[in-house]
Design a protein that fits this description.
This is CHM1B protein. Helix content is about 85%, strand content about 0%. It has five helices and no strands. The protein starts with a helix and ends with a helix.
Length: about 180
């Protein structure tokens, strides 16, 4: 139940972030209209609102990511609890088998235990991978740089950024042709 509530809260925070993004865009449109009318005081107010909405959207996203990380940790704890319970049952079975000293049962039980242990390793590795992916940035830096440059090109701006060496692509070619 708590895990569901955490995931629900993360989605709600994401929705709030998207709502703030939409409101920011609406404020930017109002800025343009106010500037076209020559009303700089109103444009300044809309600019402040747009900046506030953008900051709020970022904060909502940041909180959503944190709640997602907590949900992943809770999921790990639940999984580990199930595995621990399963291992306890295996140990009880091993005790009963050892008392009877039936080597066939011991061998079968050890095989089963080894299989469950391997499954535990796989699950643990998967959960660790999931945790590291939810709490770290996985976007390659060169893709971020290329997108920033592309957006700057569309807006007709110069970012004065240097892309990492060896990065040649359509974005770099379009920048060179635009400068010529």
């Amino acid at each position: 139940e708590h895990l569901f509530n955490l995931k629900f809260a993360a989605k709600e925070l994401n929705r709030n972030s998207k709502k703030c993004d939409k409101e920011e865009k609406a404020e930017k449109a109002k800025i343009k209209k106010a500037i076209q009318k020559g009303n700089m005081e109103v444009a300044r107010i809309h600019a402040e609102n747009a900046i506030r909405q953008k900051n709020q959207a970022i904060n909502f996203l940041r909180m959503s990511a944190r709640v997602d990380a907590v949900a992943a940790r809770v999921q790990t704890a639940v999984t580990m609890g199930k595995v621990t319970k399963s291992m306890a049952e295996v140990v009880k079975s091993m005790d009963a088998t050892l008392k009877s000293m039936n080597l066939e049962k011991i061998s079968a039980l050890m095989d089963k235990f080894e299989h469950q242990f391997e499954t535990l390793d796989v699950q643990t590795q998967q959960m660790e991978d999931t945790m590291s992916n939810t709490t770290t940035l996985t976007t390659p830096q060169n893709q971020v740089d290329m997108l920033l440059q592309e957006m700057a090109d569309e807006a007709g701006l110069d970012l004065n950024m240097e892309l990492p060496q060896g990065q040649t692509g359509s974005v770099g070619a379009s920048v060179a042709s635009a400068e010529q």
